[in-house]
Design a protein that fits this description.
11-stranded mixed beta sheet, 12% strand, 500 residues
């Protein structure tokens, strides 16, 4: 395996700037890796070979001419296939959009292009981001590079697996209830959900508009900070975009320290339902943070126990509204009824039956029911009241602590197929990540070590607009853990697809 692809994005940027390696050489190394192992992993739905190499060549030419370039110019990146990208297919992991080509770029893609980062391709996901395992993709499941018989998390398992398998140093994901952080946890990578509105959602195919957030996937906290500073900032095309910055993220990641920081342990996000190995790694992290000068306090967020139930009313309700556009008339798949008259209603029914998978249909039905006359107040309205209570719990907790900490996921990666026929068991994977989306607060998951040979994630949460605190705490714990392990967690990853 080419050693270049094992380096962090920051280290690769330094090598590019010094002329030690060319952008073409670096991009080709990652394309070669994709060719070698993605048949086993299935992280990519589309590989953008020609364009990526052309962007890399342009970067090399510009650098040779003495142009001032962005820090990450020439560093390759993978894009979750929920983010529209001109010139590449955007499928959302669904037969409904198979082969669809967007006529425009998402704002984050515009900013990636401006930074001159070669896009390696589009990564696999649960259909329309609905799932926790990337088994609900219409184009086959993605596999975890640590154990190809296990899930890589979801919905953004493709982006996390691509980073963990050294197919890409950076990736973009989207997080509605944990779809960046939970895959990061089970693949030993870093995943960040920025403050809601901190990164534009313009051009991200919507599932639940009040919950969705684009964010970075990487192998280090610093790399995530570098990428968030590329894609973040105000966007007038997104009505929910924040007009004020969320702090100097790169500086926070470079100078991370927890000395004097109050870290709140969330009472409700540990204990029953969490695997013993996950809790062991979590408690070890707490001891390291305490020894580094942090004050560890316990906080209670009593309404967090209702977050999962409230989320699975709000999210399907918004999804049912957002997915109404897939009707077989305007764009995407069109299926015709087998017999009878060709009415719009019958074409719509045939198209949705053929184009949507079981999990998408399940959530549309649930959301439509929750929004129906006579049930709106009882279900959707009540869930929104619970959401307010969760926000108040966060306010009270942040009055006692600078950041909060919990395991990212209650378990390590489970076997493919193990929970596929049990939706409720699948939904429980998001129990620790959902509260952040309900309140709009930022969260980060970093590798916390191994349990039975599989990665465990540690999650930090910070107040709205205090993303820099996440990077400060996350970078500090990352260094403490790497000192303990003797190096980055991914360096100990097992042989993948016969290629190390």
């Amino acid at each position: 395996m080419n050693e270049l692809i094992t380096l962090s994005a920051a280290a690769l940027a330094d090598k590019l700037a010094s002329g030690e390696v060319s952008a073409v050489e670096l991009t080709q190394a990652h394309l070669d890796r994709i060719s070698e192992v993605d048949g086993a992993v299935n992280a990519f739905l589309h590989v953008n070979t020609d364009e990526a190499l052309q962007v890399a060549a342009d970067v090399d030419k510009a650098r040779a001419a003495g142009e001032t370039l962005h820090t990450l110019a020439g560093v390759p990146i993978a894009i979750k296939d929920l983010i529209v990208t001109k010139g590449q297919p955007t499928t959302a992991g669904s037969k409904m959009l198979e082969g669809w080509m967007s006529p425009y770029d998402a704002t984050v893609i515009t900013r990636i292009r401006a930074a001159r980062m070669p896009m390696l391709g589009k990564t696999n996901l649960d259909e329309f981001a609905m799932g926790s395992s990337t088994e609900h993709s219409a184009f086959g499941p993605t596999r975890n590079p640590w154990d190809l018989d296990r899930i890589p998390g979801g919905s953004g398992g493709g982006s996390a697996a691509a980073v963990a398998a050294f197919e890409a140093p950076l990736a973009l994901g989207t997080d509605t209830g944990g779809s960046i952080r939970q895959p990061a946890a089970v693949t030993g990578s870093v995943g960040v959900k920025p403050t809601y509105g901190g990164v534009s959602r313009y051009g991200a195919i919507a599932m639940a508009s009040s919950l969705d957030q684009i964010g970075p996937v990487s192998r280090t906290v610093l790399d995530a900070a570098l990428l968030q500073e590329v894609i973040g900032g105000h966007d007038p095309r997104d009505s929910t975009s924040l007009t004020d910055p969320v702090g100097n993220l790169v500086e926070a990641a470079r100078n991370g320290s927890v000395a004097g920081m109050r870290i709140g342990v969330i009472k409700e996000l540990q204990g029953e339902g969490y695997e013993s190995g996950v809790l062991a790694r979590f408690n070890e992290s707490l001891e390291l943070l305490k020894d580094a000068g942090a004050e560890i306090v316990e906080v209670s967020c009593p309404n967090f126990k209702y977050a999962l139930g409230a989320y699975y009313l709000i999210m399907p309700s918004e999804a049912s509204s957002n997915l109404a556009k897939y009707d077989g008339v305007r764009y995407g798949l069109r299926a015709l009824p087998a017999d009878g008259p060709l009415t719009i209603e019958r074409v719509m029914g045939a198209t949705r039956a053929a184009g949507f998978g079981d999990e998408v249909k399940r959530r549309i039905i649930l959301g439509t029911y929750a929004l129906s006359a006579g049930y709106y107040d009882a279900y959707y309205g009540s869930a929104q009241k619970v959401r307010t209570l969760i926000q108040r719990d966060f306010d009270a907790a942040f009055a006692q602590a600078d950041v909060l900490i919990s395991p990212t996921s209650p378990n390590t990666a489970f076997k493919l197929g193990e929970k596929l026929d049990d939706p409720l068991a699948m939904y429980l994977n998001d129990v620790a990540t959902i509260p952040a989306n309900m309140a709009g607060v930022p969260g980060i998951s970093i590798p916390g070590g191994l349990a039975d040979g599989l990665p465990v994630g540690i999650q930090f949460l910070a107040p709205v607009r205090e993303d820099a605190r996440l990077y400060r705490a996350g970078a500090a714990l990352e260094r403490l853990l790497e000192n303990k392990w003797g190096g980055p967690l991914l360096a100990s990853a097992p042989v993948l697809g016969g290629v190390k």
